[in-house]
Amino acid sequence: MTRHPLCLTMGEPAGIGAEIAAKAWHRLRAAGPVFFFIGDPVSVQDAPVALIETPEQAAEAFSQGLPVLPLSLPVVPQPGRPNPANAAAVIAAIETAVRLCLDGRASGVVTNPIQKSVLTGAGFRHPGHTEFLGELAGRGVPPVMLLACPGLRVVPVTVHAALADAIRSLTTDLIIEHGRIVADALRQDFGIARPRIVVAGLNPHAGEAGTMGREDIEIVAPAIAALREAGIDARGPLPADTLFTPRARAAYDCALCMYHDQALIPIKTLDMDGGVNVTLGLRIVRTSPDHGTALDIAGSGQADPGSLIAALHLAADIATSRSRDHRP
């Protein structure tokens, strides 16, 4: 177990963040990991609240109630109806969590989902959490999104972009950069001494020797060669349509995918409720449930906390692995 608690940000106040935080506390109160919620205490309806003034108080309070480091909202949230007036508080919760981790008072950040359209309307200039966290706590490399569930880890090289734009932006250097960051994270954060990385082809059948596009020959294959020259066990490009079978998954530790859906479809098919989003390339530990704000069911009591619980467990595991490794 980590010495310090985890921070859980409130995310979009009109979404399911407070509900799944309360449900996660009920399931974890006996065995942990210990975490505290940064947000408005009034929004927590389904668990006793233990107000805290510092992260250090979370461990003692955890068995009695969900520890809440209070951050008041200017407008009372209405389930399913985001209000731009609360956007600044949402951003402040993220900034507070990162600062506490950088100061060594929390072991990691777990972020509840945000409603990016609302934040953008309030002047937020980042595409999402990942890029914002890279600015707040980056290590000089672009932050990389890894999705994990039992039995599979995937990384999309291009993320939130139209498919045509993703293909245009794919470069050999971009694949190399992601491969190096992933290999380092698998060693540091997941305790895998000799990481095995497979690289999916961009085109059907990995281009089939150039008959279905030359990107896999001219862009992807040179990146794999460079990674191998750097001592990284990288293989491919391999056809994505056979890369995620049970037999195939047993032969690698992470799949490097060329675009968003190539990575996210298999992991959400395998474990929609237990998938976790991990940001690599930061000075802090950051995980997140692999789902959105679920505005359509907010306030109904139907939200499943499974992915949040998995995110809390994985954040604690990564923090423990880093503490053994003694690296930021």
UniProtKB/TrEMBL annotation:
Pathway where it operates: Cofactor biosynthesis; pyridoxine 5'-phosphate biosynthesis; pyridoxine 5'-phosphate from D-erythrose 4-phosphate: step 4/5
Keywords attached to this entry: Cobalt, Cytoplasm, Magnesium, Metal-binding, NAD, NADP, Oxidoreductase, Pyridoxine biosynthesis, Zinc
Binding sites annotated in the UniProt record for a divalent metal cation: 160, 205, 260
Catalytic activity as recorded in UniProt: 4-(phosphooxy)-L-threonine + NAD(+) = 3-amino-2-oxopropyl phosphate + CO2 + NADH
Binding residues annotated for substrate, in chain numbering: 129-130, 268, 277, 286
Keyword Cytoplasm: yes
Record text on cofactor binding: Binds 1 divalent metal cation per subunit. Can use ions such as Zn(2+), Mg(2+) or Co(2+).
Cofactor(s) in the UniProt record: Zn(2+); Mg(2+); Co(2+)
EC number(s) on file: 1.1.1.262
Cell location: Cytoplasm
GO MF: 4-hydroxythreonine-4-phosphate dehydrogenase activity
Pfam families in the cross-refs: PdxA (PF04166)
Keyword NADP listed: yes
Principal EC category: oxidoreductase
Additional remarks: The active site is located at the dimer interface.
Subunit structure as annotated in this protein's UniProt entry: Homodimer.
Stated role: Catalyzes the NAD(P)-dependent oxidation of 4-(phosphooxy)-L-threonine (HTP) into 2-amino-3-oxo-4-(phosphooxy)butyric acid which spontaneously decarboxylates to form 3-amino-2-oxopropyl phosphate (AHAP).
Family from the record: Belongs to the PdxA family.
PANTHER family: 4-HYDROXYTHREONINE-4-PHOSPHATE DEHYDROGENASE, D-THREONATE 4-PHOSPHATE DEHYDROGENASE
Protein name: 4-hydroxythreonine-4-phosphate dehydrogenase
Organism the protein comes from: Falsiroseomonas frigidaquae
